[in-house]
Amino acid sequence: MKKTLTVVLAVILSIFVMAACGTTSAPADTAPADTAPADTSAPADTAAPAASGDILVGASVGNMTNPFFGGPEGVVAGMKKAAAEVGCTIDFVDANLDQAKQISDVEDMINSGIDLLLLDPLDPKSVTAILDACEAKGIPVVAYNSTVEEMHRLASAVVSDNYQAGYLGGKAMAEALNGEGEVVMYNYSVVEICAVRANGFRDALAEFGPNMRIVDEQEGDPTVDAAMPIMENMLQANPNITGVWALNDPSAQGIVAAIEAKGRLGEIVVIGVDGNEPNLLLIQQGKQHATVAQNALEIGYTTVMVGIDYANGKPVENLIYIPVTLIDITNVEEFL
């Protein structure tokens, strides 16, 4: 990939750029309360690939079995929709929540000749190696679902308003419990977005005073199978639990299963994040109180469009927020 173009190629390039591939979605009007203003500067040492309908895109997906990514309304579906519109090719690889695999996958994609990387960063430490490798080859990176510490090294990042997701969940929890109860949290703080959600949840509960108490917090993978035994242990250790915060909807499914196994459905308010269809059905059945829905399809679609715009030399925002929505029994039918 050449960083210095000949005059003839520059003229051809300008013609291609004029034939725009598409537009990007605007960020949410308001950034989360604990997020600094977006740095809109372009990455210092990254050169965009030549504008072309033949841009080869590599996408590292965090966990394809999670409907947020692999479902019919998931991130990957949104990426495929955008790719079809702009005419680019995307190679997808599933990191399966394995940080070492994600690094290896990206190395393989770089060696295959990708022009643009779409990355769901699994770990703030390992992502540095990925950014280094991409910069060495002049490959721009658009992060999605999660940000990175060195945002100036990205072309852009497209994420949900995760602080707001946690805050809405915490407010819904406190209101459902009438401002008084013992709450436990199931977290996955190794991923920055989950830590941000947890902070939003805590802040919302704090606004309702000391009678909303967090009595236990446990860490675990964001999966059904990981959450269920941990929730069983929390139920044993905290018999007076009245509410549970789940970092995402798959973990909320495991939590609901543990509560149901103990015969305590209807006694404990469960709130998750994502808006996955299985959880909407749980809400409809009265087993889960609420979920804060992310617009996964829009995240995927916008990520591709931002990346193509950047590749075509257009200015893009360094950080783009996609709004979230609280779904409970009052509006769940609208989303099914």
Short description:
By secondary structure, the chain is α/β, with parallel strands linked by helices.
Would you mind describing this structure in some detail?
The chain is α/β, with parallel strands linked by helices. The protein folds into 2 domains: 7-159 and 297-322, 3-Layer(aba) Sandwich (Rossmann fold), CATH 3.40.50.2300; 163-294 and 329-335, 3-Layer(aba) Sandwich (Rossmann fold). The chain has 11 helices and 12 strands. The strands form 2 sheets. Strands 2-1-3-4-5-11 form a 6-stranded parallel beta sheet, sandwiched between helices. The chain has a 6-stranded mixed beta sheet with strand order 7-6-8-9-10-12, sandwiched between helices. Helix 9 links the parallel strand 8 (243-246) and strand 9. The longest helix is centred in the C-terminal third of the chain and has 16 residues, at 296-311. The model is unreliable at 1-52 (pLDDT under 50).
Helix-and-strand structural type? alpha/beta
Separation of the first and last Cα atoms: 46 Å
The count of β-strands is 12
As laid out across the biggest beta sheet, the strand order is 2-1-3-4-5-11
User: Uncertain segments of ≥5 residues (pLDDT<50)?
Assistant: 1-52
Q: State the major sheet.
A: 6 strands, parallel
Query: What fraction strand?
Result: 15-25%
User: How do the helices and strands follow one another from N- to C-terminus?
Assistant: HEHHEHEHEEHEHEHEHEHEHEE
Overall shape: it is: elongated
